[in-house]
Amino acid sequence: MAMIENLGRPGLLKPDTKMLWIQTSTNPLLRRVDIEAVAQIAKRIGALPIVDNTFATPSLQSPLSLGTDIVVHSATKYIGGHSDVILGAAMINADETGETLSFTQKSSGAVPGPLDCFLALRGTQTLHLRMERHCENAKRVAKFLGSHPKVKNVNFPGFKTHPNHETARRQMRDFGGMVSFTLKNDNIKAAKKLTTLTKIFTLAESLGGVESLIEHPASMTHSSLPREVRLKSGLEDTLIRLSVGVEDANDLIEDLAQALDK
Q1: Hey, which residues does 2 pair with through a beta bridge?
Q2: From the CB of residue 102, how many other CB atoms can be counted at a distance below 10 Å?
Q3: How far apart are CA 247 and CA 201, in angstroms?
Q4: How far apart are CA 123 and CA 230, in angstroms?
Q5: Partners of 153 in the β-ladder
Q6: Helix H segments across 1-126?
Q7: Looking at the domain covering 128-260, what would its CATH class be?
Q8: Please, what CATH class does the domain formed by 4-124 belong to?
Q9: CA-CA distance, 156 to 179, in Å (whole number)?
Q10: Helices (H), 179-241
């Protein structure tokens, strides 16, 4: 995905470009994209603007009101909220688009089962409450990490120092429950070891559940990328991603503290 400042680069947007896919926040660096600006660019060239709103959820961000045509979610994550369903969802703002997607879904059989739907709908009942706690805990965890002597950098859009803070503040109602950070020790083994030392944060690749998760993108979610590609895009060897859950914030901070101090 091209960041918005690069969209004007010659050759990036072609006459036959049909879609601009926006992920905001991006994974795992938590960059924010100006949805309204990208949607305007897309419509100017006749392309369809689509936003992956999984990290923000409908509770924190409303891309349809910012000009996008389709919003997609991995409902497996925050919408389900309990790490017990695999489901995707798409929201649209035009009947014609809805009819096209409905026909494709009906024709290909890509429909969820009744239990999957039940679990996702159950999750929506507490989504706003969970997101409040996710956001509050993430703020406290990010603040702790930002002051720890072994941490080099913290990626959290709630910080005024984050390069996309103003964009996030303008188009979101809060900053989300995801945090990533890098270590001053640039040895990849140090980062991998850290992910095994936490007691509350579980080592896993998913996100958005009530439980806190920790993962090492370079060896897990983004391990298929060549190292030079990862580094060029900002994914350092010691980058660690946290999905901050709804447990007691003091317990989460103490857990990270004991892991970092070993």
Answers
A1: none
A2: 11
A3: 10
A4: 34
A5: 182
A6: 35-44, 57-60, 95-108, 114-124
A7: alpha beta
A8: alpha beta
A9: 6
A10: 188-194, 227-232
Detail the DSSP E strand segments found in the chain: 19-23, 48-52, 70-74, 88-92, 151-155, 178-183, 202-203, 213-215, 240-243
Read off the pLDDT of residues 247-262 as tens digits, 9 standing for 90 and up.
999 999 999 999 999 9
Q: Where are the alpha helices (DSSP H) in 61-113?
A: 95-108
Q: List, for residues 96-113, the tens digit of each pLDDT value.
A: 888 988 898 889 888 889
Helix axes 249-260, 127-146, angle to 10 degrees: 40
Place of tokens 């959290």: 156
Domain ranges, ordered by start, for the chain: 4-124, 128-260
Give 134-185 pLDDT, tens digit per residue. 999 999 999 999 999 999 999 999 999 999 999 999 999 999 999 999 999 9
Residues 3, 24: Cα–Cα separation, whole Å: 10
Stretch among 63-67, 103-107, 217-221 having the lowest mean pLDDT: 103-107
